[in-house]
Design brief:
- By secondary structure, the chain is an alpha+beta fold.
- It has one domain.
- It is built from four helices and four strands.
- The protein has helices spanning 5-52, 57-66, 68-72, 74-79, and strands at residues 81-93, 101-102, 115-126, 135-146.
- A four-stranded antiparallel sheet has the order 2-1-3-4.
- Strand 1 (81-93) and strand 2 (101-102) form a beta hairpin.
- The radius of gyration is 24 Å and the shape is rod-shaped.
Length: 153
């Protein structure tokens, strides 16, 4: 007795589709989560580099605020970034070594302090595609720079 090959292919298509669609959804969810983490890391790293290239605290804060568009851009939207923010902390080293102290905004600038560390902390919640929960995510990037003339306010 001969089998009908066309009927056999149609009968196997349904179970194969039931396996392929969930696998595709899982892969898209993982890709979406990776895009969210990547957008957060890109925004924080770029903000730290831009802040380190400035000479004043207010200009550094402005550069960090300009990089918020990375979190709300197409990559951040695909990644499901919610409540994204970038926080700037400027630290100074009185001795030029690794012991840094937090530089307060508007505080007096000591011209002897020549090494500054710009830390940008990116915080958000990532809700990838097809997930019903949000994942709180934190990324911190650092830019260290030497200002021979000191840091202006």
């Amino acid at each position: 007795m001969k089998r009908n090959r066309q009927g056999q292919q149609i009968a196997e298509f349904g179970p194969a589709l039931m396996i392929a669609i969930p696998l595709l959804a899982i892969m898209l969810s993982c890709l979406s989560f990776g895009a969210g983490v990547g957008a957060l890391a890109l925004g924080a790293q770029h903000a730290a580099r831009e802040a380190a290239a400035t000479g004043t605290y207010t200009l550094a804060q402005q550069r960090v605020n300009e990089n918020l568009t990375t979190l709300s851009g197409p990559l951040g939207q695909f990644g499901g970034i919610q409540n994204g923010k970038l926080l700037l902390v400027v630290e100074e080293s009185p001795t030029g070594e690794t012991n840094f102290t937090v530089h307060t905004r508007g505080g007096s600038i000591d011209p002897a302090n020549k090494v500054y560390r710009y830390k940008v902390r990116g915080e958000c919640e990532i809700k990838p595609l097809f997930w019903w929960v949000s994942i709180p995510t934190v990324y911190e990037a650092t830019g260290i720079v030497e200002h021979p003339e000191g840091l202006g306010v």
